[in-house]
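An instance as discussed:

___
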Amino acid sequence: WVYTATIFRLDQRGHTASQRPVITERGYVATRAGLESFERQVYAEALRRGLGAAAEVLVVADGAIWIWNLVENRFRLATQRVDLYHVKQHLWSVASELYAQDKAQARAWLRPLFHQLERKNDGAVQVLEALKELLRAKESLTPAQREKLAREIGYFTTHAQRMDYAQGRRKQQPVGSGAVESTCRQYQVRFKRPGQFWSLAGDESLLALETLNRNGRW
């Protein structure tokens, strides 16, 4: 595992002349030294980037439980938001199970759910109720479909309070984790070149140097 994070203020976002979104200044964390080390590094970098003076803190991530445990440990008062793209992937997995032979029907089923999720204040609750309603019609479902629905109902039950996308859009906040996804790709370009092989110690050492350089602390 390479644990990775990026930290920035909302006023450090902008657009290029072609309207491509950019972040003008941000902090980076990347380490293979384990979760405890990662947690300490993220918190330290957040303090350097103005955490102590922030009126509001937002953490955007995927649904991994260890991430939200870290948030509870270090950023207890932060708004928590699950990346919208990951949530849509979960709904797509349900649609694929229900309409495996008909992609058009799968898209038609998803369209109103995506709209509710993104635009309604209680969108996640509405989507959760729609999934529960499907599961209640057990006689029309295969065992695999029932299992998939039950699993995703559990996912939405766990994370519904982290799916405030309508409110996030109104505040012009990120609703997805694109910033850290691009961070991961940038690091991979450096560390996954043809012919490269790393020991854990060597990998961590170069990760530290790369991160110091990115953070302007070479």
Observations:
- The chain has a mean pLDDT of 94.
- The radius of gyration is 20 Å.
